[in-house]
Amino acid sequence: MDVNPDSPYYINLLDRKSHPEDQREYVMFHGCSKQGAELIKREGFKPSSADRMLGAGVYVSRDIRKACKYPLDVPDSEKRVLKVRVDVGKVKVIDMQNHPMQKTWHTVHGFDTAWVPPNVGIVLCNEEEDCVYDPKRIKVIEVMKVTEDNLSQYDHLQSGVTPEDSHVYVMYHGTSKQIAVDIQRNGFKPSKDGMLGAGVYLSRDIRKAIKYPIGADDSDRMVLKVKVNVGKVKVIKCQRHPMQKTWHTEHGFDTAWVPPGVGMVPSNQEEDCVFDPKRIKVLAMLKVPNLKNVNPWLKHLLQN
């Protein structure tokens, strides 16, 4: 299957702290020089030598900001980040220095990918890292320059984690085909009212966005993948919160966030309301039937 930057495979961007599941495909990143990127696109990845931290293999990361640091001695203007799709196969977690399988996870034990979680003291920067033994498991999707615009579109945040002030996050908005086209052309129009008052309603949970408009057929549903500069964030975690509808007009917050599981949203999923639509940029328009076809696991989640 051909994959482009707007492909539904973006859903398989797994949070860097989450354990990758066996036999799944995930989006990851690899930092290299401009020249190195051209060579990889032409000839494919070449596994590193066996003396590396996890032994021989191709080193990638689900953290794009880690990938963009490499090569360390190359200026940003000459760096490239490869967005890749990885079939991880059988995964071994290496969660401490001198792990008994640290360099034998493939050669002796038959695993296809080794995963180092963040903050376990193995990687110098304490970020997560993956090593894939067979380069044939990796397919380049896109070659990106190291720019803030390119990096921020992959700043996914798990739905239960509080968004930080002045950060940029990826979110989703479910709507009809006709309205999606209008938004792409003319920008978002804020709701005049709602649970959190006026603003644009979004969610970091794709399962929530994909259900809208309620009652519409899947063939008429679209999910907009957007990038949001949240500005100053107010957490609204109970019904009848004193700032539930005044967080912007009286208190100057830019975004209101309802955490999942607090009883305010019928689905119990998280919700965000952004007052100024200029803080939102559309990254991709995705058809709901395509999302479900490419990601059967998502279809299963929606039925539960």
Automatic annotation (TrEMBL):
Domain PARP catalytic: 136-247
Gene Ontology molecular-function annotations: NAD+ poly-ADP-ribosyltransferase activity
Gene name tied to this protein: LOC100196683
InterPro entries (alphabetical): Poly(ADP-ribose)pol_cat_dom
Annotated GO CC locations: cytoplasm
Superkingdom of origin: Eukaryota
Record's protein name: PARP catalytic domain-containing protein
Pfam family, one: PARP
Sequence similarity: Belongs to the ARTD/PARP family.
